[in-house]
Amino acid sequence: QRQPQLEQQWGAWLDNRYLLEEADIAEHSESQLTCRYEAAQGSFSITLPSERCSVLPKPTTVENIALWLADQIAKQTGTATHVYAFEGIDKGATAQASP
After folding, report:
1. Residue 90 belongs to a domain
2. Which end of the chain, C or N, has fewer beta carbons within 10 A?
3. Residues 51 and 77 both lie in one domain
4. Domain that holds residue 73
5. What angle in degrees, to the nearest 10, is found between the helix axes of 4-14 and 62-77?
């Protein structure tokens, strides 16, 4: 069953937040975090305020983001959670987690 209030809460928390893989962290201080990685398109680097970043233990694929969200929400609410994460039309992933 959908939980609109919970969806709104997490949507607001994720708004303007940068999700990154722990392995990509190049520098980290109390105030900022720098992420660097190589891809087929070249080298990428970004420095952001630490409070705007959430670090995931795995690559930030939509599948891993869905699983991370399900885990976080299940821990927060103490109930089994099912998450649908979308990255475009007919693209996305689902994940389930228990507290």
Report:
1. yes
2. N
3. no
4. 61-99
5. 120
Burial of 82 (0-12, 13-18, 19+ CB in 10 A): middle
For 19-67, write each residue's pLDDT tens digit. Answer: 999 999 999 999 999 999 999 999 999 999 999 999 999 999 999 999 9
High-pLDDT (> 70) share of the chain, %: 100
Q: Which helix (H) or strand (E) holds 92?
A: strand 91-97
Number of domains observed in the structure of the chain: 2
Phi–psi pair at 9, nearest 5 degrees: -60, -50
Query: 43: part of which helix (H) or strand (E)?
Result: strand 42-49
Contact present, 20 and 60 (Cβ < 8 Å) = yes
